[in-house]
Amino acid sequence: MVLVMRSGVSEKELQETIEQLEKWGHKVSVSRGEKQVIIGVIGDKSDLLGKPLTALPGVIKVLEVSAPYKRASREFHPEDTIIEVDGVKIGGGHKVVIAGPCSVDKLENVVYLAKVAKKHGAKMLRGGAYKPRTSPYSFQGHGEEGLKMLYEAKKETGLPIVTELMSIPDIDVVYKYADVIQIGARNMQNFPLLREVGKLDKPVILKNGIASTVKEHLMAAEYIMSEGNDKVILCLRGTRTYETAVRNTLDVTLVPIMQKMTHLPIIVDPSHAAGRREFVSPLAYAGMAVGADGLIIEIHNCPKKALSDGEQALLPRDFAYLMDKIKKLPAWNQKEWYQFDQQKDTDCIEPDFYNSF
Ligand code: PEP
Ligand code: MN
Q1: Which of 105, 130, 138, 164 to probe ligand 1 with, by most ligand atoms within 8 A of CB?
Q2: DSSP 8-state secondary structure symbol assigned to residue 299
């Protein structure tokens, strides 16, 4: 971390700032340029993150040299993390599609949808029993009854269960049935909840927040990892922007950007981004094309009767179509691209007028 001092900073201000940094237990290295003085802070700076650094005398700017999300960052963990759930691997080139209803409604539907998911190549079953709904009058989920239905579907198909945990009091019951715990967009910054799932030994799918930045998403993963659970799968489900034509704006650029920043697997949720059935499949395809480690998709056999998010549920035939396309899609390999890109001569190319190609 580097603290840039105001030009013309006085010796007294400089000393005060250095003393304060030393009081917080840090070693510093001062470098005096012709016009500007900068202070480099050496060693582990995690505890400095919450400190009022720009309020120290003479400091005008603070530059972070290394990522504040130490455990989630690729800087300290260059290899891709591969997470295994009941023999299903995700990350490091292992691609996984998770499918199922938004909320668990009826046993027959969940079992049927699990069979559809499996038949077309999904490796895990999703379904919410505790639902975060904008209105308190909307269906809130069947709770443990819903989890039991998911468990029946798992018994029939062998697909591991992905289900949302909304609050700390539900941890025990959700833990009992879930193979992967989903933390939804509304809870991405529920720090006490993140810390609690960080103490569990089951993988967590962490969705980005309604209007979160990449850094906030990675810091949320850091909360989970800082408690010891490093099995975190990041999920991009779009954010709220100025655009009203879509439910949420999904920026697929974030897939390669985040893959550069973190070693954790990254999946795309095209359903909550698109908000409408007809737009889910192209977004899913885009996510896989840019190199996501997987997808989480809502499907339903009777969307008009679904208890939540029926508008964005793929019908079984749509899901079959999409899975067929995805299977044939050669995955974008970001590592290979970096290797190729690094070999390139970045000098300017002199155009050869007569003999271009
Ligand atoms: C869901 O997966 O059904 C859900 C509520 O998602 P999100 O948290 O992304 O809105
Ligand atoms: Mn949903």
Answers
A1: 164
A2: B
Ligand 1 pocket, Cβ-based, cut-off 6 angstroms: 102, 128, 132, 184-186, 207, 237, 269, 272
The domain ranges of the chain are 2-63, 83-330
The answer to whether residues 235 and 269 touch, using CB atoms and an 8 Å cutoff, is yes
Residue nearest to atom 8 of ligand 1 (CA): 184
Q: Which superfamily does CATH assign the domain made up of 83-330 to?
A: Aldolase class I (3.20.20.70)
Q: What distances in angstroms separate CA 236 from CA 162, 251, 267, 322, one per listed residue? A: 16, 8, 6, 19
Q: From ligand 2's centre to the CA of 322, what distance in Å?
A: 19
Q: Identify the helix (H) or strand (E) that includes residue 220.
A: helix 214-226
Nearest CA to ligand 1 atom 6: 184
- How do strand 161-164 and strand 180-183 relate by DSSP bridges? parallel
Residue 102 alpha carbon, nearest atom of ligand 1: 3
Q: What pLDDT was estimated at residue 105? A: 98
Residue among 266, 271, 293 nearest 282 (CA): 271
Atom of ligand 1 nearest to the CA of 309: 3
For 2-63, the fitting CATH number among 3.40.1160.10, 1.20.1250.20, 3.30.70.1140, 1.10.268.10 is 3.30.70.1140
Q: Residue 166 CA: which ligand is closest?
A: 1
3-state SS assignment for residue 37: strand
Q: Kindly state the tokens that stand for 202.
A: 């089951």
Q: Are 263 and 75 in contact (CB under 8 A)?
A: no
Q: Average pLDDT of each block of 10 consecutive residues along the chain (357 residues)?
A: 93 96 93 91 81 94 89 94 98 97 98 98 98 95 98 98 98 98 98 98 98 98 98 98 97 97 98 98 97 98 97 98 95 84 75 70
